[in-house]
Every structure is written in C-alpha cells, then in structure tokens.
Amino acid sequence: MKKRLTGCRGISIINVLDAHFKRIFVTAGQTGARPVYTDVVDFNLSAKDLRAFLAVARTCSFSQAAQQVHLSQSALSTLIQRLEDGVGARLFERTTRSVALTAAGQAFSERAQQLLREIEHTLTDVRDVVGLRRGRVTVAALPSLAAGIVPRLFQAYQARHPGIRLHLVDTLSAPAFELVREGRVDFALTAADPVHEDLLYEPLTADAFVLLCTTGHPLARRRSRLGFTDTLAWPHVSMPRTASVRQYLDAAALEKGWSSCRATRWTTSPPSARWWPTTWA
Q1: Contact yes or no for 191/244 (Cβ under 8 A)
Q2: How far is CA 47 from CA 10, 114, 131, 185, in A?
Q3: Which domains does the chain have, with CATH numbers?
Q4: Reduced to 3 states, what is the DSSP secondary structure of residue 65?
Q5: Which of 71, 108, 211, 259 is most open to solvent, judged by the fewest CB atoms within 10 Å of its CB?
Q6: What is the pLDDT of residues 15-34, one digit of tens each?
C-alpha cells in the first residue's frame, strides 16, 4: 500500500518579498520627503526581474546590463520602471553620464541577492530530491517485515542512495493505515484491507497460511489434505484483532459461516509476547 504523494511545495516569491520588503521607502533625492508605503502583496516579481535589476546595479550601465540579460535597452528600462512603481520608490539615480543606486535601491539590491540565492538553493534541493541525491522517506511496516526483510532492503537502498535518510515505523496493520492518512509516513508495507479502498495499493508479494500443531494432535494424524474449515473446530492461538493475520482469519471464517469468539487473554514467555486463544463457532 502506498499513499499518493503531492509535489514539492513551491516558494512564493511574493510571500518572501512580503517578509523582506514590507518597509518604508523614501524617494531618493527628495530631502524630507514623506515615506511611501507599498503593498508588495500585489506586486509581481520574478527571478528574471531580480537578475535584470542586479545587472544594472552591478554594471551601473543600462546598455551593458541589457546585453548581459539579453534584453533591449528599452525593455530593460521598462522593467526597471515597473520595479520602481511596484516598490513605490526610485531605485536608481540616472543622469546622461551615470547610473547609481539610491538608498532604496541599495536596500532592494541586498534583499534581491538574498532572494536569488534562496531560489537557487531551493531549485538545487528540489533537483536533489528528484534525482534521489537527497531526501527523507518514512516507511511503516508490519512487525514480521520490520524484523526481517525491511532492514536488508534499507541497507541495499542506502548503499545506492547515501543522501536519502530512511526511517522505519514498526506497527500493526490498523495503525499503519492511520499513519498513512495522517501523513506521518510516506507509505506502508502491510496487508491490504478493503475498508481502506480509497488508498492506492500496489501488490508486492503474497504469504500462505500454514498449520502448526503437535505431532500428537488429531489434525496431525489426518492423512488427507487439510483445509481451513477443518481447523475451525479447534482452538487457535491467534493474534489480536488489530493484527492483519487475525483479520484475514476472521474474514475467511466468516465467509465459511463461522464467527470467532475470543477467550481470556493469556501471556506467553517472554512477557512482552501476547497471544489470544481463539475459537470459532
């Protein structure tokens, strides 16, 4: 059984800007000018805009910056004007001979560089996850699997993908479904249950039930092939009702017209191992 996974949660540049840029900008060149408050939530800003702005800030030249970002000079001028309209302040002082950052432009430049680094780091993280170079996977598994095959599979997978952190939750079948629904595990290795048919299942293997009894038991003396119904008249040492093995046995018995009755619980050695003697009628 596995859970449908959603894609990686993206970063909203608008929300990041809201945290970084919701400040007072004073229009440069106007001593004592009134502060300009800008609502950046409605301001669309892309990584392309940031790179274009930083190119102008770095070169102090619209013509050189336009070449670096592959835009015409007029298109770059329009882009910068849109940025200034968005933040509500002039970002550059322009003359016929020079281009220089204003105080607001300097503040914008520092934050723009941080934002670009965050975007690049985010893209790297996403690529690492997609490329199985980095990430975390949490798996729920039945006790029989958690104590047997899963550790070996984890070891083999870790050798192939050392950057992936693997976590195992040892649990019974019923809790495993809840862990998937709550998003606490990425998927579960457990027995299928029609009650949870809304989840996505992928069959991996199948186990057969076998009968274990003493050599002196009447069933051991039977020469003909035994069926499940042949065993139902005898008490069974069974698992609790939350265990998938017990659920399968109860369902198979009910299909044959038998219902299970649980007797008083008793404890085997060691004390941590709890079993239930079960009879069907």
Answers
A1: yes
A2: 14, 11, 23, 34
A3: 13-129 (1.10.10.10), 135-196 (3.40.190.10), 218-280 (no CATH)
A4: helix
A5: 259
A6: 433 343 333 333 333 444 43
> Does residue 13 carry a pLDDT above 70?
no
Please compute the mean of the pLDDT values over residues 212-218 and round it to a whole number. 89
pTM: 0.48
Query: SS3 for 86?
Result: helix
Structure tokens at 252: 């198979």
User: In 3D, which of 46, 45, 51 has the Cα closest to residue 65?
Assistant: 51
What is d(CA 255, CA 237) in angstroms, rounded to the nearest whole number?
Answer: 20
Give residue 21's pLDDT: 35
Is 238 within 8 Å of 275 (Cβ atoms)? Answer: yes
Q: Are the CB atoms for 186 and 137 separated by under 8 Å? A: yes
pLDDT at 205 over 60: yes
* Closest to 92 in 3D by CA, of 24, 118, 79: 79
CB 142 within 8 A of CB 191: yes
Are 205 and 214 spatial neighbours (Cβ–Cβ below 8 Å)? no
Contact in structure between 277 and 266 (CB atoms under 8 Å): yes
**CA 208 vs CA 20, 178, 248: distances in Å:** 61, 26, 11
Spatial separation of the C-alpha atoms in residues 26 and 110, rounded to whole Å = 17
Q: Are strands 236-238 and 266-267 parallel, antiparallel or unpaired?
A: unpaired
Tokens at residue 77, please? 């001028």
